[in-house]
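Changelog entry: the TetR family transcriptional regulator record was regenerated in this release. Current contents:
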Amino acid sequence: MGTRERILDAAARILRTRGIAQATTKEIALASEVSEPTLYKYFGDKERLLLAVLEERLPGPSRVALRPGEGDLAETLTDLAHAYLDFYRQSIPMLGALLADPQRMASHRASMARHGGGPDRPVTALSAYLEAERARGRLAETADPAAAASLLVGACFQEAFLRYYAEGPDLLPIPRTVASALTKTLIHPLLPPSPPA
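Regenerated structure tokens:
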């Protein structure tokens, strides 16, 4: 296994248990058996390392191909919702403590902006996909892609947070049936009217 992969694996383990606010680059470097300068050589800063962990070590929405006009829309959205549920289930403990520290939160927000990251990305990406589907006639003209994206992503975050709150950090994977129920509730009002028989 290469150095970068070792760093990512160690960072993912530590961030899951200690969170971004408590984990240190020194601790991550030690766990991955590299020096801190080596860690910074590969990732530049702690936030870039966090982004790499979120993108490469968590089952996230980037692993669902969004190809407007292709496949079954409800299935694609269910796949995406399931990926969001898994992503939030694993990332909430990594990021939660930041909310309690305004100074760290401001620094984190500025760093995420520099690296093109942040919690708005899922809504923006899904909104663009739904807009493209509406342009192809697969969603009703009256559908609001931005609102629909916010509703689906927000519902996934809420579900993951409530499960984490109720079950703690040893949370089991969230079943696909939960993603399917969220998607079905959202998508039916967005579909174009059926042609008359």
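The mean pLDDT is 87.
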